[in-house]
Each structure stands twice: as structure tokens, then as C-alpha cells.
Amino acid sequence: MVQNQLIGRGITDEMVINSMLIVPRHKYVMEDKQEYAYYDSALEIESGQTISQPYIVALMAQALKLKSIDKVLEIGTGSGYSAAILSRMAMNIYTIERHEGLAHLAKDRFRSQGYDNIAVQVGDGTLGWPEKAPFDAILVTAGGPVIPDSLINQLAIGGRLVIPVGDKGEQILIRVKKTLTGELIEENLGLVRFVPLIGTEGWGESNIKNVKPC
Ligand code: SAM
């Protein structure tokens, strides 16, 4: 997986590569899907959600430009896999999931693997985690119609926010950097397909009928 899907496609960040070598991806998927855990694709997880394709996880983690002392917020815990990857690269990870069952499963996985620098919350991640802000980096692993203002406000000076923004079928992966003067610089990192970001500053609950997860 690491050699062919990541390095072969241009992932160069050593922290990302090491982290993806260490974290056992098969422990983040349902038992009947474990044989596909290292395939070059997203997979269905509990609650009708998905664990993203390994390359996309690596691409987003690399785009965050993490330092080992960073405090990171993730929106969309899902299986817990990307939070586990980030936890091997940065000091503290805060992750929010709207499905309670997924949040509890992820928490159990972190505990059993000894990843003790990850805090999990159940709730609407579009509003961020104000009590723990500001964050050096914010990763959103579901696609929203806009960049939530709450997340921009909770980004530290010099911080990076990576989020898929677009419609419910396709999105552009965007990196926003908050400069020393507080100015926002946006970069387009390419076309992606994510499940919808549902919440106050995302898609409304009633708009998500017939959406196919990535
Ligand atoms: N990071 C996950 C992993 O490694 O398995 C992949 C997550 S999946 C592509 C996106 C997740 O975002 C889903 O579990 C979904 O329930 C969650 N989600 C969607 N909207 C959310 C919101 N407003 N707050 C928190 N989680 C949300």
C-alpha cells in the first residue's frame, strides 16, 4: 500500500509515510472487510459511512504540513483511521463525529492500540470545538457546501485547514492557510468525492437523500 499507492503517487512527507506504515488499517474496518483494508479504495464502515482511500488519507495528512508539537482538529472521525494516522504525527488530536456509534467504536480502537493523545466528541463538527481552539491544523473528512466560518475562526495564526468543498457528488479539496496577518490563502488540491458534511454550517439533514458515499 505505502510503496505503490502512496510513494508511487508522489507522497513524500516522511511523517505521513511512517505513520501509514505503523497504523494497522485492517483494525479500522468491519471484520468481513478486513481482507480489503489495504486495497486502493474507500470502504464501507458502520453507520453507512466510509473509510477513505489510503492515498486520500495520505494526501490530506501531507497537505496539513504538520509539526510534532501541533494541536489538530478533525471533523468526521468515522472509523478513527485518519485520526490514528494524525496522532502519530502531531501532539494532540481532537476529533468529532456525528454518529455516536462510530465515535464509541473509534474510541475503543484508540484505547486498545494505546493511542492516548486523541480526544473524541460526538456532535456537529461544523461548529468546531471552541473550548480547545485555536488549532494549528484542521482536517474535515466530509464534503461541505462552504468552508464553515466556525472552523476558520478556530484556526490559529499560521494554521492550515484542509476541506472538501463542492456539491454532494464531487468536491474540490481546498487548503486554507491563515497568514501571520490573519489573511486567508486558498489552494486547490484537486477533485475528490466524500460523504456529505451534515450540520449547521454544512448540508442540512433534509438535503442528503439519495447521496452515494465515496
Ligand atoms: N476520517 C474517517 C476515517 O478515517 O474513517 C473517514 C470519515 S467519512 C469519509 C466522513 C465522516 O464524517 C462520517 O463518519 C460522517 O458521519 C462524518 N460527518 C459528517 N458530517 C459531520 C459533522 N457535521 N460532524 C461530525 N462528523 C460528521
UniProtKB/TrEMBL annotation:
- Please name the GO terms that the record assigns under molecular function: protein-L-isoaspartate (D-aspartate) O-methyltransferase activity
Q: What residues sit in the active site?
A: S52
Enzyme Commission code(s) on record: 2.1.1.77
Q: What PROSITE patterns would the database entry show?
A: PCMT
Q: Which reaction does it catalyse?
A: [protein]-L-isoaspartate + S-adenosyl-L-methionine = [protein]-L-isoaspartate alpha-methyl ester + S-adenosyl-L-homocysteine
Top enzyme class of this protein?
transferase
Where is this gene product found? Cytoplasm
Principal location listed in the UniProt entry: cytoplasm
Check the record and name the InterPro entries matching this protein.
Answer: PCMT, SAM-dependent_MTases_sf
Q: Would you identify the family this protein belongs to, as annotated?
A: Belongs to the methyltransferase superfamily. L-isoaspartyl/D-aspartyl protein methyltransferase family.
Q: What is this protein called?
A: Protein-L-isoaspartate O-methyltransferase
**Species annotation:** Desulfosporosinus fructosivorans
